């Protein structure tokens, strides 16, 4: 399966939904640029929905860290939503679950963002 990403805004939060396998940095470079260009409008509030992500490697973890940095530069935060299966295992083994706020659903992530100033 290939990789795809969809960006949308809901409740003044940028939601990035990822699907497939994250393997190559070249694929993520443009996505990171697109995220950065929209973060100012939502005050850095970012949710990355990884519910339909089948696989990530260190490139994916690096992407999450770069996106988190971009969100925090805009005085916001990144929440990872929907991690499951091997993706959840990789996030836990790499201790990224201690770095990122994680939720089971996008709705939970939206609630967290919208309760912060």
UniProtKB/TrEMBL annotation:
<dbReference type="GO" id="GO:0043856">
    <property type="term" value="F:anti-sigma factor antagonist activity"/>
</dbReference>
<protein>
    <submittedName>
        <fullName>STAS domain-containing protein</fullName>
    </submittedName>
</protein>
<feature type="domain" description="STAS">
    <location>
        <begin position="1"/>
        <end position="113"/>
    </location>
</feature>
<dbReference type="InterPro" id="IPR002645">
    <property type="entry name" value="STAS_dom"/>
</dbReference>
<dbReference type="InterPro" id="IPR036513">
    <property type="entry name" value="STAS_dom_sf"/>
</dbReference>
<dbReference type="Pfam" id="PF01740">
    <property type="entry name" value="STAS"/>
</dbReference>
